[in-house]
Amino acid sequence: MLRSRGFLSLACVVLVTLLVACENLDVEQFIGSLLGRVTDEAGQPLVSATVLLDAGLQSTVSGGDGSYRFDLVWVGEHSIWVSLLGYETTSLSVMFQGGGEMVISDLKLVRTGPGPGPEPGSISGTVTASNTSAPVAGATVRLARAGTPITTTTNDSGNYERGDLEPGTYSIEVSKDGYQTTTINEVVVNEDEDVVRDIVLT
Is 10 helix (H, G, I), strand (E, B) or coil? Predict the structure, then answer.
């Protein structure tokens, strides 16, 4: 009986010691945050990339500046996986020391195929007669870039417009029975630009 009481007393002492130790333990030194950015190969931020910590223990998506963040991360080795449609999945292992924030170097994703092309531009304008300044309807407008013509026709108001043009340098040729054919060269169309060129026929 005395031996049992002695063992019980020892167990109580150990338990009390553990409780006191836990109260004095600074848990914050064992947890913290992991944060970083997801970018393309050129360093431009990628938005809405899926970022997984430890095979999905935590998950998030990258923000407008490509940033992501994981909180309540314990010390130790962790794996980060990043995926985004059109890019190769990338993973990284990090050793977290705890006690605050750890900034991870940018996770750069490699595109799996060709990137999207440039935004197209357009050319528009009004064709008028030199002697009356009246609009010329039914005039043929040919836009040419690298020898490939694109044809459109002016409407009743003498207006023409052609969109979906690849950026580049174009020539504009306008013809109409009873008028001299007029050509304008070196018309530069930049990406996502609307170029206006009014033309007068004589």
Answer: helix
pLDDT at 28: 63
Tens of pLDDT, residue by residue over 5-37, are 444 444 444 444 444 444 554 556 778 999 999
Residue 53: strand pairing partners? 58, 80
Residue 98, token pair as written in the block? 């705890």
pTM above 0.70, yes or no: no
Place of tokens 């553990």: 18
Could you give the CA distance from residue 33 to residue 53 in angstroms, rounded to a whole number?
12
Residue 136: count of CB within 10 angstroms of its CB: 21
The number of residues making up the chain comes to: 202
Task: Check: CB of residue 68 under 8 Å from CB of residue 37.
Answer: yes
C-alpha–C-alpha distance, residues 40 and 183, integer Å: 43
